[in-house]
Amino acid sequence: MKRILWSIFTIVVMNACKNNETNITDSSAENTTAINIPANLPYTIVNVYPHDTAAYTQGLEFHNGFLYEGTGLNGESFLRKAELSSSKTLQRTDLAKEYFGEGITVFNNKIYQLTWQNHKVFVYELKTFKKIKELDWAYEGWGLSNNGKQLIITTGSSNVYFVNPENLQIEKTLSVYDNNGPLANLNETELVNGVLYANVYQSDRIVRIDTASGAVTAQLDLSNILEKNNQPIYPNRDYLNGIAYD
After folding, report:
1. Nearest 10 degrees: Cα torsion 101, 105, 109, 115
2. Of 9 and 115, which is predicted with more confidence?
């Protein structure tokens, strides 16, 4: 499954602007004919921050000046609140050893956290990290964000699910595609000004998705980002995983 062992957090500014599920289709993305090749978005590295290489980062989110991080691996998964500049942990809760933690999002003064193959979503009080609820989810859990009304969940397929935060009922399924057809391995997501961004697992791509049609309208190519910033490389372990917008 998804593993990330970067020793850094890289802050990128864009200068523009495993799957066990039954396929649930949405009429938005059935026609993939005459799709343009996604444009490449230019970007600038504005800062690089330290990060614990032992943390298998799965989800990231900025909230009120702090970084919230969810990590994976059975027996090692946790949720934490941290200072970005130092990576100092300010608050933390560990998952039971049978759970592999995944994407997180802050929503209505609560933190939602996916699990990979456990079919559970944990809900915590934002202030105390007290777990207040467990919800059942039918599929694998990969990436998580929200649009202010719904949770946005990916499962490693080409589908993005918009779900009710109270009961995880699917209210919309968005089928994502580019010029090559359905785009699988959609992972961590972030909604920015109504536009959805997602990293494609085990690739160097972050794609920009039209939430009305499911079309990939542009992409960020982060190939060689570590080399370009003189950072150590861990072969077979360094994948883009966890994106956040501040």
Report:
1. -20
2. 115
User: What are 92's strand-pairing partners?
Assistant: 80
Domains in the chain and their CATH numbers? 8-17+45-228 (2.130.10.10)
* Beta pairing class for 216-221 and 39-40: parallel
Identify the pLDDT of residue 34: 64
* Residue range 187-209, pLDDT digits in tens: 999 999 999 999 999 888 899 99
Q: Is the pLDDT of residue 58 over 80?
A: yes
* Three-state secondary structure call for residue 221: strand
Q: How confident is the model at residue 236 (pLDDT cuts 50, 70, 90)?
A: low
Higher pLDDT among residues 243 and 75, named by residue: 75
What residues contact residue 83 under an 8 Å CB cut-off, 6+ apart? 66, 67, 90
Side chain identity, residue 159: N
Cβ distance 206 to 220 under 8 Å?
yes
Instruction: Tell me the sheet residues that pair with 228.
Output: none
Residue 215's alpha-carbon distances to 37, 53, 104, 160, 221, in angstroms, are 10, 34, 24, 12, 17
The torsion region of residue 194 among left (phi > 0), alpha (psi -120 to 50) and beta comes to: left
Residues 6+ apart with CB under 8 A from 126: 63, 106, 109, 110, 111
Q: Let me know: does 10 contact 45? Beta carbons within 8 Å.
A: yes
The dihedrals phi and psi of 219, each to the nearest 5 degrees, come to: -145, 155
Name the one residue in this structure whose structure tokens are 């969940």: 153
Helix (H) or strand (E) holding 81: strand 78-82
3-state SS class at 84 = coil
